[in-house]
Amino acid sequence: MSMIETKKAPRRKLSAPDVSLVIPTYNEKANIAPLVEAVRSALGDIPWEIIIVDDDSPDQTFAEVSRLAREEPRLRCLRRVGRRGLSSAVIEGALVANGSAIAVMDADFQHDERILKQMYEKLTSTGADIVVATRYAEGGGIGEWDATRAKMSDFATRMAGMLVGNQTSDPMSGFFMVRREIFASVIYDLSQQGYKILLDIISSSHTPLKIEEVPYVFRARQEGESKISVMVLAQFLFLIIEKLTHGLIPPRFALFSIVGGFGLLVHLAILNGLKLAGFTFIAAQLTATFIAMVSNFVMNNEFTYRDRRLTGLSFLAGLILFCVVCSFGALANVGVAEIAIHQFGNWSLAGLAGAIMGAVFNFSAATSLVWRRPRKRVVSVAA
Ligand code: GDD
Ligand code: MN
User: Fold this and answer.
1) Is residue 383 pLDDT above 50, yes or no?
2) Which residue has the higher pLDDT, 306 or 37?
3) Which ligand 1 atom is the nearest neighbour of the CA of 28?
4) What is the residue extent of each domain of the chain?
5) Is the pLDDT of residue 229 over 70?
6) Which helix (DSSP H) or strand (DSSP E) does residue 70 occupy?
């Protein structure tokens, strides 16, 4: 006899899921239980599984999922530690999915889970590769958004159109269903940056995709708060740059250079202003350099390195370090320009070579010294 008493409960047959629902979460504890219920009634007799990908939420969403999973084996939690990011969370969740269709949905009830069944039926009946839940087609809507958010979304949707044309009316949707083999076919090409996983999948596909849509009305968030921020905007720019340059130019470097170009405009504007005010050239040049450096620092802190943003005392320390780095960058710039002028004798070419050297130097030094990778958050939790 074994030591362990085995109960003779009738074995429930677990069938392989048709739909794997991947739900990224960050501080969504209060939404989990009602969400699982809502999905259960929305999908009815279609076999499903739910994979919650939680980035070690401070509110311990992962513990809530584990608790519920004891009663509901179709629910699982993938807890990621020391990582953040919506796209990468979705991708990793999709990689452990077993369903023939992978659906992606938010945890906050803004995406109307009641259309999940319709989405699955459309996927199978039309043979589509992706079914997008859209806010921008007949029958859909953006709900209670204020004018600013609506304009931002509209602008982002147009920008996204640069990448994917008019294949879908809502390329920024975070709510869609994709065939698992389509997802598998783009896995190595996904940028994994930011929020725009659907846009990432469509723009990464090597062959044109058959895309169908189901309209829905975006709802107000049930519990908790939105994580969308300037960060999301910066990451969106990253994705557009990366896809448009086919990964040739690192997006962070592109943003850094755009900020640098903007700083040059600031510099020239101030220089000319001070000239009118009667400053000597050297005084005006020094002032303009300093102000341009500060403005570059602030812009890089807001956008280029949004994910590592410095505040308070580290902001000041970072600013000083950034000025020191830029001074060395200027030396590198002049050094290379000098070599180039002897080599080619062409002023513009030498100037350009120097500027590129300066930018690359500043970028690498800023990335490794000023905005260093944040240290890991250490928390002790009972899971
Ligand atoms: N794992 C993980 N990691 N999940 C995250 C993270 C993260 O860093 N950031 C956000 N989430 C989760 C949230 O918990 C939520 O379930 C979902 O991702 C969406 O986050 P929100 O903060 O609610 O985003 P939103 O409502 O402003 O924007 C959403 O809807 C838009 C319209 O469809 C997103 O899905 C956008 O991508 C989408 O465009
Ligand atoms: Mn939301």
Assistant:
1) no
2) 37
3) 14
4) 19-229, 251-370
5) no
6) none
Residue type, 240: I
Query: What residues have CB less than 8 Å from 146, skipping those under 6 apart?
Result: none
CB contact at 8 A, 99 and 20: yes
**Which token pair is 6?**
């085995």
Around ligand 1, the residues with Cβ closer than 6 Å are 24-26, 28, 53-55, 84-86, 89, 106-108, 110, 172-175, 195, 226-228
Q: Report residue 11's pLDDT band, with 50, 70 and 90 as the boundaries.
A: low
| Alpha-carbon gap, residue 349 to 233, rounded angstroms | 35
Distance in angstroms (rounded) separating the CA atoms of residues 241 and 253: 10
Quote the ligand 2 centre to 159 CA distance (angstroms): 21
Q: Say if residues 166 and 200 touch (Cβ distance below 8 Å).
A: no
Reported as a single tens digit per residue, the pLDDT across 243-273 is 788 777 788 888 899 999 999 999 999 999 9
Alpha-carbon distance 125 to 254, whole Å?
A: 43
Ligand 1 pocket: which of 50, 106, 173 to mutate (most atoms <8 Å of CB)?
106
Q: What are phi and psi of 36, to 5 degrees?
A: -60, -40
Domain 19-229 has CATH 3.90.550.10: yes
CA pseudo-torsion sign 97, 103, 104, 109 = negative
Strand order in the sheet with 130-134: 75-79, 48-54, 19-25, 101-104, 176-179, 130-134, 211-215
User: Residue 381's pLDDT is what?
Assistant: 47
The SS3 of residue 313 is helix
CA count, 13 A, side-chain hemisphere, 319: 15
